[in-house]
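Q: What does the assembly look like in three dimensions?
Context provided by user:
Components: two
Sequences:
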Amino acid sequence: MATTKIVTAYAPGTVANMVCGFDILGFALHEPADQMTLSLSDKPGIVIAPDEEYHLPTEPEKNVAGASLIGMMEAWGQPIGFELTMKKMIKPGSGIGSSAASSAGAVVAANHLLGNPFSKEQLVQFAMFGEKVASGVKHADNIAPCIYGGVTLVRSILPLDIISLPSPNLFVSIVHPQIEVRTADARAVLKHTIQLKSAIKQWGNIAGLVAGLMKHDYDLIGRSLEDHIIEPVRSILIPGFDDVKKRCKEAGALGGGISGSGPSIFMLSKQEDTAKQVGAIMADVYTRLGIDYHVYVTTINQQGIRLA
Amino acid sequence: MATTKIVTAYAPGTVANMVCGFDILGFALHEPADQMTLSLSDKPGIVIAPDEEYHLPTEPEKNVAGASLIGMMEAWGQPIGFELTMKKMIKPGSGIGSSAASSAGAVVAANHLLGNPFSKEQLVQFAMFGEKVASGVKHADNIAPCIYGGVTLVRSILPLDIISLPSPNLFVSIVHPQIEVRTADARAVLKHTIQLKSAIKQWGNIAGLVAGLMKHDYDLIGRSLEDHIIEPVRSILIPGFDDVKKRCKEAGALGGGISGSGPSIFMLSKQEDTAKQVGAIMADVYTRLGIDYHVYVTTINQQGIRLA
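A: Here is the predicted structure of the complete assembly.
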């Protein structure tokens, strides 16, 4: 059997939670995207080339991509060797699915090199080993959209149940203020119990968001982008958050909020012009605050990981 | 202006909550339906004919239909007189929207007699005065499907935001065991706080149910009909509940649970034959328990209230 010996996976950033859909919703971006170059090797095991920018661990079990590949290799059951070179374009700790992109990119590339023996759902399972290394929790709300593309719902983790949600054209503006919010810290500020009446508002909005996406009803999408539970607690960790949200919505954004566990903030817009203006507002807020930042203006990536 | 002087509204029963959508989802049934006959009268005010079966209050402000009409008359602002005769086909306290049917039927009939000055959303607002009389809470999860038909989402009460959800053909089996569960009692057993991890499961299922309905994905609908929060507490008030649920699902029902605050139990099926078999199982369970019951096998009513 002839197999490709080397492949590069372009694994996009992702926005988890989508404001009201904590731990269940997410969508893929066109940019930024990690470049994960994987080749088959005659020597069984995983060799990870050091990356010069972020000095990520090169021991496979401590590296998110390595841990994901280990998970896949155990399922494969035959001796196999991989060599991995990563060009990280998504900064670790940005809140736009950096660890998910590396985890998912590695296993999608490996699956291609092996002749596609595994399903998308299995690939999500393997990449969740990487998320466990990154944050201590096996979650799939970034991995699912990275692999499936578009907007995804993780209805359940055990058993894993991923549903692709159709969505209309949406432009995404994202600002990554260069401050550190560790996923573990962002999880620690959450309360274990919540008010039933807040939960009812939240699930009304989640149902509204899913219906709005599927009906291509932009107003309903905007009305549903409210979070009564997570955002009030987590946004305290992100300087400038309230200002960004208020000014971006005034400029015509449908709505938005914290991307994943932050510190990145995303906003959705119906028109590209609005999304660009929203990006400029984000830049202005952090310029005034004297905090370094990076702004992306992009769209929802319906394809997910691309191989080349 | 020529106006119709008398009209009868056939106001259907409704199933609120739909298992995972506590306080936000509901759907209308083809049967049973209350018959609300309303006529214009020269004498301002509301006259309610006594009903012989249930001896409901005839003072307008204590009667759910009367309270709803009072709400509408205040918005109308001109002196007007109504005479109402009700033929209650939905037993009060059954959990299939008896008070909502009477409340909604009265205001939809009155709106017709006045030349349709009010929108559906306004009619829901008026009928919520009836729900307040019935249960002390102004909720819309039965009224919305009664007036709009089909499956409805009440995304928010303040401001009121009702969204019609497209749904595939679904057959509905309902059993009303003739025991009393007061809405107020069913609310009292609920805890004010819930676990965040339970809430996440719940909103995953709500998102799955909305997506399943809109995609016509029967399996997804079935998988999403799970309630980790309300059902474990409320089902204790309904003898036979676990048995009904287990046996109906074994017989091929997609899923189901408590209708509204109970004691009725509903099950959804893809095929009419399955729904009939499910109805027979429901009858068998309560026959064995020695509890009187009534079984309905019907479909989702896409029209809502019908006037004649």
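Follow-up: The interface with chain B takes residues 21-25, 153-156, 161, 163, 165, 190-197, 199-211, 214-215, 220, 223-224, 229 of chain A (CB under 8 Å).
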